[in-house]
Amino acid sequence: MIKVLADKYLYNITHFCPNDVDLRLFDPDAPLNIADDIEALLIRTVTKINPQTFPHFPDSLKFIATGSAGTNHVDIPYLADHNITFADAAGCNARSVAEYVGVALLLWAEHKNINAKKYSIGIIGVGHTGGAVQKILHALGIKSIAYDPPRQRRDSSFTSASLDEVLQCDILTFHVPLTKEQPNATFHWLDSGKLKNNQFKLIINAARGGVIDEQALLAEYQNNQIGNYILDVWENEPNFNDDVARNAFLKTPHIAGYSKQAKSKASKMIMEALAVHFGIDGPKAPTGDLNIKQKKPLSDFWSLTDVLTYYHPIRDYETRLLMLVGRSSKEKIKGFNHIRTGHPLRNELRYIHLPSPLQSKFPMLKNLFV
């Protein structure tokens, strides 16, 4: 039996556990002690793996995987130095994040009483998630420009827009990892210089906190250089900046990728990687499909916002985050993490049946629910 220690909040992790695995669960809010017989560790982004947090690993530990698309919380070269194989769940939440961007954009457009189709959107980073965003925007009939020079260098079939072209867009949405190493550094990619020299109707960051210089973002918003901004990720997260949060059109606690389907896919992916590494049979449970139907009377849906916020709890997340504004750092950190682990996961819109009357009343939504 392969002895595996896993974060208890990895969604449905026990259901994806192969028969040859002895699975033990840990609470990420408590100090993590890895027993000497543990051979694999499965974590989430809240567990940092680096020389400071783990100066020593047990000799038995040979595999670490994170149930997330991002890997900024793991020092991968450090693991390689200790002959520990690493795996992630890249792409697991691409559709979920793309739906978040689509919902947020449509909520903003209705609030401003404008047609989102009149604006161009620059997608910064066109990997799994940026590509999914591009597809949703295309389905909604919204023009987008793809900017990803690193991808162009490694993928001959992809051509990136130029920096000047993407900065001419009305709206920017970010889908890049957080890196500080050149030549592909993304830390503070959107800085004071880019903000002062360009005007944007809307900025959306559902990638990583630190990709945008938040102080510069707030300053240029207050200078009317930016119309609005939407943040799902934060510098110094989970200890987010109160003023930055107060002024955001939408603010959520890093939940853009939080859907049942994305979390199930992540758990399955890391268990599959574990099975390959140890040469055992893979996960025993499928992710499954859904066709969820709404129970609210159709007469209660008066606006596009009514429909979007019924099917996607984006405003509920925002309300919960706002309750943390002004709290102490300790309370904020605890509350931020509690929202992420305690709030029921949503279903992705493509798994939900949108009644025909709502499709007719709000035709733009038809392509968001498929």
Q: What keyword list fits this structure?
A:
370 residues, alpha/beta, Rossmann fold, 5-stranded parallel beta sheet, 13 helices, 13 strands, 34% helix, globular
Give a verbal description of the structure:
- The chain has helices spanning 76-81, 94-112, 128-139, 149-154, 163-167, 192-196, 214-222, 242-247, 260-278, 304-311, 314-322, 329-342, 356-361, and strands at 2-7, 21-26, 40-43, 63-66, 85-87, 120-124, 143-147, 171-174, 200-205, 226-231, 250-251, 292-293, 352-353.
- It is of the alpha/beta class and 370 residues long.
- It folds into 3 domains: 2-88 and 259-278, Rossmann fold (3-Layer(aba) Sandwich); 94-251, Rossmann fold; 292-367, no CATH class.
- The strands form 3 sheets. A 6-stranded parallel sheet has the order 7-6-8-9-10-11, sandwiched between helices. The chain has a 5-stranded parallel sheet with strand order 2-1-3-4-5.
- The chain starts with a strand and ends in a 9-residue tail after the last helix.
